[in-house]
Amino acid sequence: MLKAAPSYAFNPQGDGKGKKVLILGGGLCGMTTAYELTKLGYSCTILEARDRVGGRCWSVRKGSHNTETGLPKQTAQLDDGQYFNAGPSRIPHHHELTLHYCKELGVPLQIYNNVNEGAYYFSEGKGPLSNQKIKVREVHNDMRGYMSELLHKSISQDKLDLALSKDDIEKVLEYLRAEGGLDIDNLYKASARRGYTVAPSTGNQAGKVAEAHRLADLISSGLTDPDFYNVAEYTYELQMTMFQAVGGMDKIATALEKKVGTLIKKGAEVTSIINTDAGVKVSYTDTTGKQEASADICICTIPLTVLSNLNHNFSSDVSRAIDYASYIATGKIGLQFKRRFWEEDEQIYGGITHTNNDLTQIFYPSNDYQSNKGVLLGYYNFNDKAIKTGNLSLIDREKLALEKGALIHPQYLKEFEKSFSVSWHKTPCSLGGWALYTSETRESMYKALLKPDKQVYFAGEHMTYLNAWMAGAFESARSVVTEVNNRLSEQRGEYKKVDK
Amino acid sequence: MLKAAPSYAFNPQGDGKGKKVLILGGGLCGMTTAYELTKLGYSCTILEARDRVGGRCWSVRKGSHNTETGLPKQTAQLDDGQYFNAGPSRIPHHHELTLHYCKELGVPLQIYNNVNEGAYYFSEGKGPLSNQKIKVREVHNDMRGYMSELLHKSISQDKLDLALSKDDIEKVLEYLRAEGGLDIDNLYKASARRGYTVAPSTGNQAGKVAEAHRLADLISSGLTDPDFYNVAEYTYELQMTMFQAVGGMDKIATALEKKVGTLIKKGAEVTSIINTDAGVKVSYTDTTGKQEASADICICTIPLTVLSNLNHNFSSDVSRAIDYASYIATGKIGLQFKRRFWEEDEQIYGGITHTNNDLTQIFYPSNDYQSNKGVLLGYYNFNDKAIKTGNLSLIDREKLALEKGALIHPQYLKEFEKSFSVSWHKTPCSLGGWALYTSETRESMYKALLKPDKQVYFAGEHMTYLNAWMAGAFESARSVVTEVNNRLSEQRGEYKKVDK
């Protein structure tokens, strides 16, 4: 019943003394790789192009900066203590390895409140419910109600040929009455689940349940559309419980930096990776000019979109897989407000408002509830919407976020203070949100990268089925450490096959 | 669109100088009443029978004690820093007044993680899924899948006479495909939503989706029964976002005590409440013997089940309403464990496991994630199950919790350290969990208590439609402060009608 060992157990054996490993990229994967290899005695060096560690695991706070392609340098002016997670902002409870490293590195966690029935669906310019703030609970419970009513009707009128006993059919009907909140006539007429227009209180105030939306109105306003309706929270990776690092997700990166900081050369931008007879030779530039580094083994965690622009002598299969890699276009904007009107005026504490306009989503902060100021994510969008938004100037992105956001929260106009936007596909050293594969490209591209190209190993979330998640970085680090250690131990004749 | 004033706005006007108000009960309602009346200048005294404030708002920690009827005194031996909320443990995001007082009193909040798809349903001794740990996500997504498949079939075979356009019907089908996670043939075959047997990871490990449970098995194992299936989280008051006070819910009580502590006589057990021509006279006992107190007005927050045993000269209607009051039987047990095996071994962080046996529910702590020790609620049961459990000796309650709990978590046996149980209906000064009303008793009983009996006002959660919630105590306090202040101001000729 219990697992023999937790999935985060990791005890590779070997002696890395005298072996040099060059790690390209000081993100979570690169730093974790160095952390684990160092435990085994390997001499590691990390080259990191940015002046900070963490890569996409980045929390924007006062002084954070970014320069996107074709745009001026942006430096965050957020108040002290204010921040937002420009990269990963959520940890699923089943990403054991991520949670394990948080524990091992002493990073405190708090709940990321991904599910909030009190946030909104907002359908701009569509149908009878257009431009209204519809609480998530209204859509959820109205749809459960209507669908349960219809199925109850269908089954009780014996219109479905169910492979169930008569008793079991009675139990399905009972389930539907409960699931849908149906009335005594098995009809859905609204219930307290969807909220009150007058709250229950003292004396004779029993509360007044709000009326249900009409099914036809929900449909024609687009609120049942799969890309809008919140089936997102059904997704395995988005189911509660979810976590975030207290104080910003970059606390994970800085905790790793405390362990391997002395091995990292920041501001070191790799220009070429060459396999040689003796090992691997990497050229890079830093503030003092052109540099070279050599090692027995190189572990490359550079995103494929960035790697594609470097010189290398990889095999044609590998080269092709790199050049044709596909990454998602995605962007976020953090908006700092004078006060938390979403909490104070609208009782929205964390969670997500979904909208059909270019914002796609508004994320409310899951930290420092009931404090004075706050930063929310004014948009978090993908693909076409992210490309469109990313093509705007910084001030026009802010303008878009404020104009569209004010349709939902008119308080925006009075309370807004500062913004900072990130378009990941336009950000050098990242050039995309995360790797996107189809079942075809898993075969035609991904597989070519699974084996090392001579002395060069590929690692990072793009080398996993955990794309977009920090778990991908950690799992990939473990995997590459195992492979490299097995290979080098074998070379020394002290080979012990160790399972990952 | 925005409210003119938040619902917690409260600005009664009046001058209470020279007027004495005697408040019976130092729970949340009694202390809040004193806090607000004191702001208006009234002279308040609170009589509290226990040696602590807070009433049912009680967190059990080292040294906490309770003596239930017919049982020996129980003193908690929990480790320093360990606690559980024996009374209210959750604050809904829409209980604005509770949240308002937390803010005003400086009580920090954190998420109470009420929804956790990684916790279990556990059906003991029933059907083919008997005694198996079924993850909440499995039941949720299997049932959504099967029900959506059935309705899709019914609609697409034109068996339902829907009052919808052809386009809208197509959209309902599209919704059902997304809601149920149906496959290309519109059948439910399981999906990643319900979890993996092999998790997605690095290399070729794409992950292996677990097989769905059979609908007939879910039904005959009772997992779709309304009293077992988790429709609880659909309830308005149990929808996320939910909060708890950091460090224990009693932090709210102790924060109030900081404001009104000097007005409270602890260990003062009321024996009689007599309306007189001049006001009201209350007898009570304390360590020094029999005492008397008099005042212009008395606000009685004593639970009706306790009040029923006191001497008084209330009208017959009021007396009858008190004597026939119904309160829920309910109990909890806190179990301290050496390590958080539910987190470490099973990735359960907060949330609730539901079971059909006497435990009813296991609550996992929503605090101090990834720390070493932890206290979970081994049971939280109601009505017959609570009466049965409450009738056990303390050691037999612990035995029940461990034996039944070990069916779900065999780690119980090795990791258990200490327990503390509370049976609220057997606890003097409470004698029940919370007031239970039917629509009939709202008319025949409750209404008699809404008006003061001469100089005596009744207040507390039992005087609201917010039974079981701290919000009831706060709302009732606001309500009675308004009424008393209006009456006394009127008497002085300075009457200004103030709306609550």
Automatic annotation (TrEMBL), chains A, B:
Major enzyme class: oxidoreductase
Phosphoprotein as UniProt keyword: no
EC annotation from Swiss-Prot or TrEMBL: 1.13.12.3
Pathway: Plant hormone metabolism; auxin biosynthesis
Catalytic activity, reaction form: L-tryptophan + O2 = indole-3-acetamide + CO2 + H2O
Amine oxidase domain residues: 28-484
InterPro entries: Amino_oxidase (IPR002937), FAD/NAD-bd_sf (IPR036188), Flavin_monoamine_oxidase (IPR050281)
Single GO molecular function: tryptophan 2-monooxygenase activity
Keywords: Auxin biosynthesis
Example GO biological process: amino acid catabolic process
Top-level taxon of the source organism: Bacteria
Gene3D superfamilies: 1.20.1440.240, 3.90.660.10, FAD/NAD(P)-binding domain
Assigned protein family: Belongs to the tryptophan 2-monooxygenase family.
Annotated protein name in UniProt: Tryptophan 2-monooxygenase
Organism: Pedobacter cryophilus
